[in-house]
């Protein structure tokens, strides 16, 4: 049976990892290499690494850093932040990313998704759909509204070849009070590809709720940075609730 | 010293992860897209993500299909295809029209079709690998261990004897094949942590008598 995935998210800015609240007020939480090594030892299901400053700073992904991280990562690694075109996708895959997360560029120039998927396969194209409560999609690190609903955007992305949707709730990010379950349910029901819920996990019950509302995988950051919970403990809890998890 | 492993570069990415994992498994991997350099290999790994038709074209354009056939089928160099690399063993693929594959394993590569609610395609994540029988490739790995998958197509073998393992998804699909010294796995051992590294080590060591 296919297991649900619990995915720690690493947000990178400048020289270290950060974690913020509502895509803002980010504070330092450590070094990416150290985090990758720890998660590798703990055998987590997958990692998401997002360079949250890249698009705002008008630069592409930090390939050198991703190359170093990927060498330590014997687990699936999805990398995003600053991915503007298919050349960025290729470059990230070449240095060892298994999947590339496309955010702003996917919404503003969806042909990027089509091109990347056609060239490298849908399985390595993850589109980040960042929403406010209610489901409106915002881009550029949650600073620019698009006026479009998450369901419409997610459907378009899948139609253009996205293999997974990373559904991030801006308003719930770092708040640790639970995921945006309503949007998760609507988007999961609307697309045939896996949906990774992100934003809001503060306790294991929150991750269970996201799965019970249709998510196929749950990403979380603050719960692992700021509480004593480990991915393994979260999975034990999920197992107790009847969700299939990997031992 | 471990065996020299050629990681075949035919423009279909994910080479670095495979190279690193083979190193971790005790091999001496080298990445090459040059048919002439395959001669130096004790083992050959064909990785790959992407579309079947592009992959076949890339192999042919570089003269790698003939070189692989010579090394693996004529000279008996053990071979492991990973993900798309396993699918390429098939007679033909059906991703964007029918395309001939290498034809080393009789079968067709077809799209996964959900059989139940909640089954999504691509099939992404950790899923069980049920061994169909004993194989040196799975030595030391408990049956039904979870490996990491990410794919939309699968290889449907014509001959059940080629099936080394299956995975229960979209009904059930073939997740590993073996035909003599030719192996293929649909999952990603290079991304399946210690069990994946173990599988690669098994591939490197099976029948290996040293330099």
Please explain how this structure is put together.
The complex is a heterodimer of chains A (247) and B (211). Chain A has a single domain (5-240), classed as Aldolase class I (TIM Barrel). Helices cover 35% and strands 27% of the residues of chain A. Chain A has helices at 32-41, 63-71, 86-94, 104-108, 111-120, 150-159, 181-190, 204-212, 222-226, 231-240, and strands at residues 5-13, 16-21, 24-30, 47-51, 77-80, 99-102, 125-131, 136-139, 144-149, 164-169, 195-198, 217-220. In chain A, strands 1-4-5-6-7-10-11-12 form an 8-stranded parallel β-barrel, surrounded by 7 helices. The longest helix of chain A is centred in the N-terminal third of the chain and has 10 residues, at 32-41. The model of chain A has no long low-confidence stretch (mean pLDDT 94). Chain B is α/β, with parallel strands linked by helices and 211 residues long. Chain B has a single domain, classed as Rossmann fold. In chain B, the strands form 2 sheets. Chain B has a 9-stranded mixed beta sheet with strand order 2-1-3-4-13-12-11-8-9. The longest helix of chain B is centred in the C-terminal third of the chain and has 13 residues, at 193-205. Chain B is globular, with a radius of gyration of 16 Å. Chain B starts with a strand and ends in a 6-residue tail after the last helix. The interface between A and B is large, with 39 and 39 residues.
What key phrases describe this protein's structure?
heterodimer, A: 247 residues, alpha/beta, TIM Barrel, eight-stranded parallel beta barrel, two-stranded antiparallel sheet, 10 helices, globular, B: 211 residues, Rossmann fold, nine-stranded mixed β-sheet, four-stranded mixed β-sheet, 5 helices, 13 strands, 30% strand
């Amino acid at each position: 049976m296919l297991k649900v995935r619990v995915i720690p998210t690493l947000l990178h800015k400048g020289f270290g990892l950060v974690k913020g609240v509502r895509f803002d007020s980010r504070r330092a939480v450590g070094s990416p290499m150290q985090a990758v090594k720890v998660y590798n030892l703990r055998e987590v299901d997958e990692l998401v690494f997002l360079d949250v400053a890249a698009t705002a700073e008008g630069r592409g992904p930090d390939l050198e850093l991703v190359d170093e991280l990927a060498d330590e990562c014997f687990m699936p690694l999805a990398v995003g932040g600053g991915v503007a075109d298919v050349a960025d996708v290729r470059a990230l895959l070449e240095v060892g990313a298994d999947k590339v997360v496309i955010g702003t560029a996917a919404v503003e120039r969806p042909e990027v998704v089509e091109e990347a998927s056609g060239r490298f396969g849908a399985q390595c194209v993850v589109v980040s759909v960042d929403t406010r409560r209610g489901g409106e999609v915002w881009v550029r690190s949650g600073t620019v509204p698009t006026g479009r609903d998450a369901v419409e955007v997610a459907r378009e992305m899948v139609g253009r070849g996205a293999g997974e949707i990373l559904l991030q709730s801006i308003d719930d990010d770092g708040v640790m009070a639970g995921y945006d379950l309503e949007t998760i349910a609507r988007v999961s029901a609307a697309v045939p590809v896996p949906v990774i819920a992100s934003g809001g996990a503060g306790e294991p019950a929150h991750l269970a709720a996201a799965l019970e509302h249709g998510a196929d995988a749950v990403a979380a950051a603050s719960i692992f940075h700021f509480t004593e919970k480990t991915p393994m403990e979260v999975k034990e809890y999920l197992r107790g609730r009847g969700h299939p998890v990997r031992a | 010293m471990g065996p020299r492993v050629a990681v075949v570069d035919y423009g279909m990415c994910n080479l670095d992860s495979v190279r690193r994992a083979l190193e971790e498994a005790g091999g001496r991997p080298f990445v090459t897209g040059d048919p002439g350099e395959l001669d130096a290999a004790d083992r050959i790994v064909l990785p790959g993500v992407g579309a079947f038709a592009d992959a076949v074209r890339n192999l042919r354009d570089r003269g790698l299909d003939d070189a692989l056939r010579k090394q693996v089928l004529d000279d008996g160099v053990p071979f492991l295809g990973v993900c798309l690399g396993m699918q390429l063993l098939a007679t033909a693929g059906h991703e964007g029209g029918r395309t001939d594959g290498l034809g080393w394993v009789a079968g067709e590569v077809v799209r996964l079709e959900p059989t139940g609610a909640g089954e999504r395609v691509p099939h992404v994540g950790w899923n069980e690998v049920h061994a169909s029988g004993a194989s040196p490739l799975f030595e030391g790995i408990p049956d039904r261990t979870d490996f990491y998958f990410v794919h939309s197509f699968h290889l449907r073998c014509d001959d059940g004897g080629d099936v080394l393992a299956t995975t229960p998804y979209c009904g059930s699909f073939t997740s590993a094949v073996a035909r003599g010294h030719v192996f293929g796995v649909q999952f990603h051992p290079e991304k399946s942590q210690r069990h994946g590294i173990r599988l690669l080590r098994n591939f490197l060591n099976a029948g290996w008598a040293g330099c």
